[in-house]
Design a protein that fits this description.
Oligomer: heterodimer
Order of helices and strands of chain A: HHEHHEHEEEEHH
Helix content of chain B: 40-55%
Strand content of chain B: 25-35%
Number of helices of chain A: 7
Radius of gyration of chain B: 20 Å
Largest sheet of chain A: 6 strands, antiparallel
Strand content of chain A: 25-35%
Structural class of chain B: alpha+beta
Number of strands of chain A: 6
Chain lengths: 197, 188
């Protein structure tokens, strides 16, 4: 009597494991590497606001994104290295993410009034508001934070710095609690009158 | 039947009055809308806008280890600072706006607690109070001749003499320089 049942063979599974596995790993590594060069929409919004409201051309120098995993890895590695200052360890352990985008302009003129108006409007749509805006001559600084941020354990901020022809947009996410404690300790060591208050 | 209608009307009126009162208590009466300012070409421009969420965050951050910081921030709901450098382009507009803001404050129940005019500098400090003790907001307007205009609005229960301390804590330069002694509070 003949049966239609085929014998189970591990070959296709092994093939999938040995070919598909490395491909998947390669894919994950590629995504991981490319994520270092992919900045958040907030950074892109600020950068685009500058590019849209300037004459001349800006050229990208670098765009970098260091996420929570990378900071975790750095924190883990720092445990095996002696001689790292306590402040650096604390900064590493409290950091949750950092991104930076640096551009250099050539013959650029930026309209600060239009730039701030555009950036404010676009960031507002994303739920961010401008905490600080400073402008003088060719220099401009703007700091944005989320409107609803009220926990010191998870603080986010975006900074736009335009210094003549140098444009820097940066994003940081961190737990401020340990940094605040450290800063107050240092301040009291430096200025004993603070401790006496 | 008539009694029921009258009672319902009375309850309705009471509820409306209470909810209106509660809403009024929740709104920031000490907040003043200065309007939007934008930098003029070549002129100095500083804008700081600290909202209540950030203040709550700072309070949470400081409450365990820094009671003196908590003491300063307690009761604060917001801080807004505008510093505008004056140029030929914006001088008239800014001066008109500051004059209009001062007029508005005078008519809207703000008490002018300091007026100082010296040479080209013109400083006005206004305070809005609720009852005898509660300060709802403070506004400082400064016209530094033809060079700068400064507008400050501190929202919340804050004593005028603590303005400089707030300036120092938040690193807001124009506030650091404001030295106000409130006769009203000194008496209390």
């Amino acid at each position: 009597m003949q049966t239609n049942q085929k014998r189970w063979s591990p070959f296709p599974w092994l093939l999938a494991f040995f070919i598909g596995g490395p491909l998947l790993l390669l894919f994950v590594i590629l995504i991981g590497i490319s994520s270092f060069f992919w900045v958040s929409p907030e950074i892109r919004t600020l950068r685009n606001a500058v590019l849209e409201n300037s004459s001349g051309q800006f050229h990208r120098k670098i765009e970098l994104n260091v996420g929570r995993a990378s900071f975790g890895l750095a924190k883990f590695a720092s445990g095996f290295i002696n001689g790292i200052p306590e402040e650096a360890r604390m900064a590493l352990s409290s950091a949750k993410g950092a991104q930076v985008s640096i551009y250099r302009g050539h013959g650029t003129f930026v309209d600060a009034r239009k730039l701030l108006a555009t950036a404010d409007q676009q960031m507002e749509k994303r739920g961010w508001y401008r905490l600080v805006g400073v402008s003088k001559d060719d220099n401009l600084l703007a700091i944005y934070t989320p409107k609803l941020m009220d926990s010191a354990n998870d603080v986010e901020a975006c900074v736009l710095v335009l210094n003549r022809e140098q444009l820097v947009c940066a994003y940081g996410r961190s737990d401020l609690q340990p940094l605040f404690k450290l800063a107050m300790q240092k301040a009291k060591m430096e200025f004993p009158e603070l401790a006496m208050q | 039947m008539k009694n029921i209608i009258l009672q319902s009307l009375a309850v309705g009126t009471l509820c409306t009055a209470l909810s209106t009162n509660m809403l009024a208590a929740n709104t920031d009466n000490g907040a003043v809308d200065f309007g939007k300012f934008s930098p003029a070409n070549g002129a100095e421009f500083v804008e700081v806008n600290v909202n209540s969420n950030l203040i709550t965050m700072a309070l949470n951050l400081a409450k365990q280890s820094e009671p003196e910081v908590v003491e300063v921030l307690k009761g604060l709901k917001g801080v807004r600072v505008n510093v505008m450098g004056l140029t030929d382009e914006n001088r008239e507009e800014i001066q008109n706006r500051v004059t209009s803001i001062r007029k508005d404050l005078d008519t809207k129940g703000w008490e002018r607690i300091v007026t100082a005019i010296e040479k080209n500098n013109d400083v006005g400090v206004y305070m809005k109070t609720r009852g005898a003790d509660v300060v709802e907001g403070i506004v400082v307007t400064v016209m530094e001749g033809n060079k700068h205009a400064v507008l400050v609005n501190v929202i919340g229960d804050i004593r005028p003499e603590k303005l400089a301390t707030i300036g120092e804590r938040f690193n807001i330069e124009p506030l650091k320089k404001v030295k106000v002694k409130s006769a009203k509070h000194d008496e209390n």
